[in-house]
Design goal:
It is a single chain. By secondary structure, the chain is an alpha/beta fold. Among the domains are: about 230 residues, Rossmann fold (3-Layer(aba) Sandwich), CATH 3.40.50; about 35 residues. It contains 18 helices and 13 strands. A six-stranded mixed beta sheet has the order 4-5-13-10-11-12, sandwiched between helices. Strands 8-7-6-9 form a four-stranded parallel beta sheet. Strands 2-1-3 form a three-stranded antiparallel beta sheet. Belongs to the threonine synthase family. Keywords: Amino-acid biosynthesis, Lyase, Pyridoxal phosphate, Threonine biosynthesis. It is an enzyme of class 4 (lyase). Pfam families: PALP.
Length: about 475
């Protein structure tokens, strides 16, 4: 196959329930198991066909496609056979998602942290977050279902802390036909920048008192009782698209994952699920020889997965938690819907690579916001979730979990500008007590005013210029030539 030829391979994707083990065909729209309400993973029953191609040949195929020009394979569908090999070429939705850069940190930051590291800037996706990977897959599949069933109206719906709603609204606005978008947000708990996105894309935006978990219960009820397309990560097609994150890291690493650690904020647990499943697929096909170590990171204000894994393996029981305010808003989820997927895949991951292949650490809110500021003051564009990952790396370093010879890739899930309000709150010392954050002067940066409007009015242009120069010389400590 040439690099500009759409793949001929077609998989046999089926929904596998992680609770009762029921299996359903992939040409129907399911979110949870009709038998037990458990969550699904999609599995390709033709996967053995892919094993007939060597890992070396798969690497060559994916590398060739990276240089290709076909629109449908510019983004996540460069890895078509591993993601959703049931979607036809004409149904692929591409808005520029994927191929986000991995930026190695400056020597100064690496010296500060004491570990080799890089950020993967997923905020450089079209809606400025990683959610676009999953939406591209989910909407491509939905495109195909709409045509197959000749549906005259499809209402897409999601609960969101901000990024999911922005992405869902953007893709729904782009897709032709009967698709309409509704998003449900926790009132007052989404940044103004994030709220502007679904509004700007024309989505119906509904706000509900409470937190994300409250919104999630409402959309789950709607999905179970009405014909709506649920776009949260309970939708297993979302998970498939987000696996491209793992594939891109492996390709950036020249398919050598030895000595690599990948840090991912847990949130609703869809992304860490996708990352693990993606790397497991690459290993099964011998595309990579070794799995990277995975570190999930949670805030102490929303840490049910951390609490589960800190228990003795034989006595573990999962319980949701009540969340408190967090600057890592996307991670402020007390009952992640994808937790059963994490439990399933973490066990497979550890069985394949060893007990230390999967870890969960948790960090304080103070560490999250200051790690974001530290990263961005050293040339990155990390969001608070990126700060959470850097805080997680520092925590893992302090606990002796990451060696000095390992290279860590941190997930900056969204663009820093989406969370600029938290930076402003830190600089202005205006956090409410619930955050548990006490700003420190060493991280605060504020504009410095010189002269006044009255000075400008009473001075000539030359006098004003000289006065401004003198003030800047004083502030900057400049010396004359």
């Amino acid at each position: 196959m040439t690099m500009d030829e759409f793949p001929a391979y077609r998989g046999d994707l089926r929904y596998h329930c992680l609770e009762c083990k029921s299996v359903y065909p992939g040409d129907e729209l399911h979110y949870t198991c009709p038998e037990c309400s458990g969550v699904f993973l999609l599995q390709d029953h033709n996967f053995s066909e892919l094993k007939k191609t060597s890992g070396e040949d798969w690497r060559a195929v994916f590398d060739q496609r990276a240089a290709g020009k076909m629109t449908q394979m510019q983004g996540i569908f460069r890895f078509f056979e591993l993601i959703a090999p049931v979607v036809d070429k004409e149904d692929v939705v591409y808005l520029g998602e994927g191929n986000t850069p991995v930026i190695e940190s400056s020597p100064r930051l690496q010296k500060n942290v004491g570990r080799k590291m890089a950020f993967k800037n997923d905020g450089q996706n079209p809606s400025a977050s990683f959610k676009d990977r999953g939406m591209a897959c989910a909407f491509s599949y939905l495109n195909q279902l709409v045509k197959k069933n000749n549906w005259d109206q499809v209402l897409t719906i999601c609960a969101s802390t901000g990024d999911t709603s922005a992405s869902a609204a953007l893709y729904a606005a782009y897709v032709d036909g009967p698709v309409k978008s509704v998003v449900l947000l926790p009132q007052g708990k989404v940044t103004s920048q994030q709220l502007s996105q679904p509004l700007g894309s024309g989505s119906v935006v509904i706000e509900l008192p409470g937190v994300f978990d409250d919104c999630m219960r409402v959309v789950e009820y709607l999905a179970d009782n009405f014909r709506v397309a649920l776009l949260n990560s309970k939708n297993p097609w979302r998970i498939l698209g987000q696996e491209s994150y793992a594939f891109e890291i492996a390709q950036w690493s020249n398919w050598d994952m030895a000595g690599r650690c990948v840090f991912v904020p847990i949130g609703n647990a869809g992304n860490i699920t996708a990352v693990m499943n993606g790397f497991l697929k690459l290993k099964k096909l011998d595309i990579i020889d070794e799995l990277p170590r995975i570190f999930g990171v949670q805030s102490t204000h929303a840490d049910p997965v951390y609490r589960y894994y800190r228990q003795n393996p034989g006595d573990r029981s999962y319980a949701p938690v009540e969340v408190t305010p967090s600057v890592a808003q996307a991670a402020m989820i007390g009952n992640p819907v994808s937790f059963p997927r994490v439990r399933e895949l973490a066990a497979k991951y550890q069985q394949e690579q060893g007990e230390d292949a999967f870890n969960v650490v948790h960090v304080q809110e103070q560490q999250i916001i200051e790690s974001m500021l530290l990263a961005n003051q050293n040339g990155h564009i990390a969001c608070t979730q990126g700060g959470e990952c850097l805080a997680g790396l520092i925590q893992a370093r302090d606990q002796g979990l990451v060696g000095a010879d390992e290279f860590s890739i941190l997930d900056a899930t969204a663009h820093a500008l989406k969370f600029s309000g938290f930076q402003e709150m830190y600089f202005n010392r205006s956090f409410s007590p619930g955050y548990g954050i006490t700003p420190r002067q060493e991280y605060i940066n504020q504009p410095q005013s010189v002269l006044s409007e009255e000075d400008k009015e009473r001075m000539s242009k030359d006098e004003f210029t000289r006065a401004a120069v003198n003030e800047m010389v004083r502030i900057l400590g400049l010396q004359g030539n």
